[in-house]
Design brief:
This protein is an alpha/beta fold and 397 residues long. The chain has a domain at 15-184 and 285-381: 3-Layer(bba) Sandwich (FAD/NAD(P)-binding domain), CATH 3.50.50. Helix content is 32%, strand content 25%. It contains eleven helices and 19 strands. The chain has helices at residues 22-33, 58-66, 70-76, 100-105, 114-128, 173-178, 251-258, 263-269, 313-330, 334-364, 367-373; strands at 15-18, 39-41, 53-56, 82-86, 92-96, 110-113, 133-134, 139-145, 148-153, 158-161, 163-166, 185-197, 208-213, 216-223, 228-236, 246-248, 278-284, 292-293, 296-298. The strands form four sheets. It has an eight-stranded mixed sheet, sandwiched between helices. Helix 1 (22-33) links the parallel strand 1 (15-18) and strand 2 (39-41). Helix 2 crosses helix 9 (313-330) and helix 10 (334-364) packs across helix 11. Residues 15-356 form the FAD-binding domain. Pfam families: FAD_binding_3. This is FAD-binding domain-containing protein. Its cofactor is FAD.
Amino acid sequence: MSIEREGNRPMSLRIAIIGAGLGGLATALALQKSGFRPVVYERSPEFAPLGAGLTMCSNANRVLRHLGLGDMLERDGVTQAQDYRDARSGAVLRRFDRENDLKKYGAPYYKVHRGDLQMEMARLVMARDPDAVVMDSELESIAQHGTEVTLKFANGTEAAADLVIGADGIRSVVRQRLFDDSDPVFTGYVAWRALVPTEGLGEDFMVSAVTAGTDRMINRYLVRARKLINVVCFSRRSGWRSADWSTKSDLGEVFEEFGDFDQNTMETLRLIDPNGVYKWALHTRKPLQSWVSGRVVLLGDAVHPMLPFMGQGAAMAIEDGMILARCLGSIPVLDTALATYQAIRKPRAEELVERSNLMAGVFHNGPDKYTRASDYTDQPTDPSMYDATSVPLQLPN
Ligand SMILES: Cc1cc2nc3c(=O)[nH]c(=O)nc-3n(C[C@H](O)[C@H](O)[C@H](O)COP(=O)(O)OP(=O)(O)OC[C@H]3O[C@@H](n4cnc5c(N)ncnc54)[C@H](O)[C@@H]3O)c2cc1C
């Protein structure tokens, strides 16, 4: 596939991206579209369709379609009405017609499997440039010497770049080495995640439903062309001081926490393979004053991890990558391009961090609060409206 040239920066700028998550790969695709040849370094030895489901709101899908993911999303993404239900009775308190999002925002709303999307993004990146992704490369150290950045990996290899993009997630080594060496902070929320095959199941199970009770909430929806149900069970406890990062868990623990939920939800939980339950402790990080240090810049969870209650964490990483590539492709002075990226993205991402914190309260403070506040999508700055492919690239005066 040929690389279209859109910008005026020399293609020879050596750009290294650390991390081939959704943020890193979106950045690579957007940079390729602007005429660059970035190299992505990923610590995992291979891509595999691992992971769980994700909500991809219209703002994310607008970018993903622009980057060539439209066919995959249409094939595998699921758009269906989303119920908000009461945990005790299972009664539907509110229904959102997600089919409307295409008309309302100009891009669809999908539920997808993270691993499927990541693999397709990686395939596209490598179709454009077979040398663009280097697997099994865990960054260990990073140093800046004038305008060059040097990278050392756990496998003993080294690389040099003119610009390094840290897209290495909430435990970012790039952040830790050059920006902030504090640890992520546990939020008090724990999530259990599992996938259930839908083969042979009745329509009662083929739903998208957020079922909330006080301090606990279960979100389930279909992914992979309706072949799997993604189940995420959230619990908040003030007594939890800290928790393991991400670990295999026991289905018994899920029943202990959520055993009093309504019948339909419990029937879904009983379908979970006891060997397929993963527990995540949800962490956050303090906001950074600057996202740029010399020739190194951060994006996605490396700089602004957020609670998942707006379904916008991956979307913000994808938008970051789009805006960063547009800045690099169209603003000739590198420092100005990076400053413009930060000026555009920092307020947007920090607003979503705040709103995700607010939504955490809404979803865990009982059905009353939850029903009223389900109007959140109608707020003046509806996140789904944002168009990272076309917002003006301007530094504030
Ligand atoms: C329970 C839960 C539910 C969520 N639901 C949603 C949702 O519905 N919608 C949504 O938009 N978001 C959701 N999120 C958030 C979303 O998953 C993240 O915001 C998003 O994945 C961040 O993308 P990223 O590319 O910045 O980081 P990551 O996805 O974490 O990717 C980082 C990549 O860097 C690699 N890496 C790490 N360290 C190194 C290193 N030293 N060297 C090389 N490579 C490295 C990792 O292997 C990984 O591939 C959810 C999160 C959780 C925990």
